[in-house]
Design a protein that fits this description.
Strand 1 (203-204) and strand 2 (207-208) form a beta hairpin. By secondary structure, the chain is α+β, with helices and mostly antiparallel strands. Helices cover 59% and strands 14% of the residues. It is built from 26 helices and 17 strands. The strands form 4 sheets. Strands 3-4-5-7-6 form a 5-stranded antiparallel β-sheet, with helices on one face.
């Protein structure tokens, strides 16, 4: 061991590397921040007024001193000095600006611990005093003139300071939860205009860099924030640039119009906005006198830069500056957080159910372990009853304990197997054989009864454990369904509001979202129209025009609210496919009730679901079994749960049998997506289904067990693609298996469908039932159900 070696505590290398990366990133961001402040100070210091005054750099430096630390203030002061240096021979009274800038840097260090208001008063008083002394001592003006000119410059600096300081605070709120107002955006645009105006005097082949940057900035802001903000930014840009030139009106007109045009055409897209801007600029060029200050090539270059910026950046800027979209984004985040909390609670509930299931299974295993100790307890009980008062017990249970114990065990075993044989050992020496035999019968009978109840309770405990486990799995699947995202479509909602207001259609509320299949849904609340069908005649065409999609009123129609004298109507995307269905049934001969149950219809999620459930046997009992399965699946599907989740949950319920007379049910389910034309066949113990396409017939068969037989349902899923004119045939086993010899065979129905030229669902359905009855000799040996569906393409 080496003495004096310094030992460091254990540290994670990955964590240290992450901290080093964060530190480097922070240092880089600080450097970029200082550089940006320096460049901004340099450019703002270069901005001149027509009378050769340059108060903008002083105002900017005061704002930095008030809002930033000493390092940034020093760098900004240096940038301001260099900006004034670049104005040599272009500005009047240049030395006073050097003196004021140096004084501000010195005062920043002297007054760093003073309250901000007092600090500002001292700064402005010292600036005024320096301007006044310079005018009196250097320029040799009179006291009155010097006082007025100094006061004028101070009155120019103060509002500029206020705007720049306000904008710096706003710039710091970027990428935060702050919601920008129009005033804040305009103040930021003014500061940006000052920075851009500082690029005057630079050109490449006669193209003004200032004009290109200024036009691009106004274009971007108008496209991102709208016509009002674009026009305001254009006016601010034109005013500031016009202050440095002799033609303020022209600058305001050009920049203001460009921002206005960009904002007006923002809804048509980036390319249309750019094209409209070029056209507007060309019109100004031809019909007004802007040829000296602006060139057509400058507008083309600025438009090219505007178009070259990716749309992704514009979306980020819009989300940052548009308070409505930013607020909606925050609302979406809150909704996601609430949903995560609810999902967490449901997952916890699922874990509790799984733990309960495991505990019950362990208790059932404990019952099996107890069997080992029960045999000795029976022998001891029998010995207590018979041998406790016997005079021979000392010989039997002390001298010959082993032989006596084995003999008692053999006797009990014989009576459990219903044998009346008494072991030789007990025949030889037992003096109470009749009492022994009678007590053995009592103990064995009691034991058998107790074991029957114990076994039944143990089986119930195991069954309950499996059911709770299935419930836990169902909850987990429900959570997955609930976790599907629903996107709020605020853009479409605002557009619909705008067009409804424009057409003077009164409404109370509107809500737009895209469901889990990314299809648009519009919920509208309005006053009751008294049966005039306002929602269909007037509102629906407007919604179609705004969304650019073929919409329709949902199957729920118009829901009236008599208390509020209003109605709620839901518009959804029109499905591409329509299904016409017909069903035909026949009861078994001698029965009045059909054991088959069926259902078909459109669901809220845009699918068309068809179910046939065949209860084992016939009559009302089979009908109740199949009806329960169909009803539960309908409830789950209409609530928006996955069909497999519904089948698993129903299987968990149907496996709980309270008597041996209770039977099982088959399930034949098809689910067609009316938008995509895809159909899923889900079969649990059911017979084959068929798809007829012209003269071709496709068979969808399955070999699975009915619902309730297994702990987990045996579901066979087949996916198919349907086309216009396809016919789907679903049958119960009473139709297909018209007699015992034909069980499981589909040849006759395939041949019948191929030869049939009838495409009407009603006629074809009735012909299938009649053909099955004909093949069975006119007798209906089992309940028959046939559903025929024809698919139509709407567009």
């Amino acid at each position: 061991m080496q003495y004096g070696v310094e030992l460091f505590p254990y540290q994670r290398i990955k964590k240290m590397k992450n901290e080093e990366k964060k530190q480097k990133f922070q240092e880089l961001s600080d450097v970029l921040k200082i550089i940006s402040y320096f460049v901004a100070a340099f450019l703002v210091g270069r901005v001149l007024m027509v009378n050769l005054m340059a108060p903008f750099g002083i105002a900017y430096l005061i704002a930095i001193i008030v809002s930033e630390n000493n390092k940034v203030s020093l760098v900004s002061g240096i940038g301001t000095l260099l900006g004034y240096v670049s104005l040599y021979n272009n500005v009047k009274n240049l030395p006073v600006y050097f003196i004021v800038t140096a004084t501000l840097l010195v005062l920043n260090y002297i007054l760093k611990n003073i309250e901000q208001k007092k600090k500002l008063l001292l700064i402005f008083f010292s600036i005024f005093l320096e301007f006044l002394l310079y005018k009196l001592l250097i320029v040799k003006l009179s006291l009155a003139i010097g006082f007025l000119t100094s006061f004028f410059e101070i009155t120019c600096i103060f509002p500029l300071y206020f705007i720049i300081h306000y904008s710096i605070i706003c710039f710091k709120e970027l990428k935060t939860r702050h919601l920008y107002t129009n005033e804040e955006i305009i103040s930021m645009a003014v500061t940006a205009s000052l920075i851009i105006a500082g690029t005057w005097g630079t050109s490449i082949h006669g193209v003004s860099i200032r004009n290109v940057i200024a036009l691009t900035f106004v274009l971007i802001l108008g496209y991102v924030k709208g016509s009002s903000a674009g026009a305001a930014a254009g006016v601010a840009m034109g005013t500031i640039i016009g202050v440095t030139s002799n033609d303020m009106i022209t600058s305001i007109g050009v920049y203001g119009l460009c921002g206005l045009i960009s904002g007006i055409f923002r809804e048509t897209g980036k390319w249309m906005s750019g094209l409209a801007y070029i056209v507007a600029f060309a019109v100004l060029k031809m019909y007004s006198d802007i040829g000296v200050q602006f060139k057509i090539i400058e507008s083309i270059i600025s438009c090219a830069v505007f178009l070259a910026i990716p749309q992704k950046i514009y979306r980020k800027l819009e989300l940052e500056l548009d308070w409505q979209k930013k607020q909606e984004c925050f609302k979406d985040n809150y909704v996601d957080k609430v949903k995560d909390i609810l999902i967490g609670k449901l997952n916890s509930f699922s874990d509790v159910l799984l733990n309960m299931s495991k505990v019950l299974e362990k208790l059932a295993d404990n019952d099996k372990l107890e069997m080992k100790s029960k045999s000795s307890a029976l022998i001891e009980n029998l010995a207590d009853r018979v041998c406790s008062t016997c005079n021979m017990k000392s010989m039997c249970w002390k001298r010959e304990t082993f032989y006596t114990y084995n003999a008692f065990s053999e006797l009990i075993g014989n009576y459990q197997e219903n044998k009346k044989d008494v072991p030789y050992e007990l025949e030889r020496k037992c003096t109470k054989r009749s009492v022994l035999i009678k007590n053995t019968e009592d103990i064995v009978n009691g034991y058998i009864i107790n074991e029957m109840w114990r076994n039944r309770l143990s089986e119930c405990r195991e069954l309950l454990a499996h059911q709770i486990e299935n419930m836990a799995n169902s909850v987990t699947e429900i959570v997955k369904e609930f976790d599907d995202n629903i996107k709020f479509n605020t853009d479409t909602e605002n557009n619909i509001r705008r067009v409804l207001n424009k057409n003077n259609i009164q409404y109370r509320d509107i809500f737009c979202f895209n469901n889990k299949n990314d299809r648009l849904v519009v919920k509208l609340s309005m006053e009751a129209c008294g049966g005039e069908q306002l929602c269909i005649k007037k509102v629906l065409p407007l919604i179609n025009e705004v969304t650019g999609k073929c919409m329709c009123v949902s199957d729920d129609g118009c829901n009236l609210n008599p208390l509020m004298n209003g109605c709620n109507v839901t518009f959804e995307e029109t499905p591409k496919y329509h299904v016409a269905s017909y069903v035909s049934t026949e009861c078994k001969n001698g029965e009045k009730h059909n054991g088959d149950t069926y259902s078909f219809g459109k669901l809220p999620d845009g699918t068309y679901m068809t179910i046939i459930s065949d209860g084992m046997g016939s009559g009302p009992q089979a009908g109740r079994e199949s009806g329960a399965a169909v009803e539960l699946i309908e409830k789950f599907a209409k609530a928006g749960f996955n069909k497999l989740t519904a089948i698993n949950t129903i299987n968990s319920i149907m496996t709980i049998k309270f008597s041996e007379n209770e039977k099982f049910s088959t399930l034949d389910l098809s689910s067609m997506d009316l938008y995509e034309g895809e159909i899923d066949f889900m079969k649990v113990g059911s017979v084959a289904s068929f798809i007829k396409r012209g003269d071709e017939v496709e068979v969808i068969s399955s070999k699975t067990l009915p619902i309730g037989v297994l702990d987990k349902p045996d579901v066979d899923i087949t996916k198919k693609k349907l086309k216009n004119g396809d016919i789907v045939i679903m049958l119960s086993d009473g139709v297909l298996d018209y007699e015992s010899e034909a069980a499981g065979k589909v040849d006759w129905i395939v041949e019948f469908l191929k030869n049939s030229k009838n495409t009407d669902p009603r006629d074809l359905c009735e012909n299938i039932i009649n053909k099955a009855k004909e093949l069975s000799g006119g007798k209906v040996k089992d309940d028959m159900t046939a559903i025929v569906q024809k698919v139509y393409n709407l567009y």
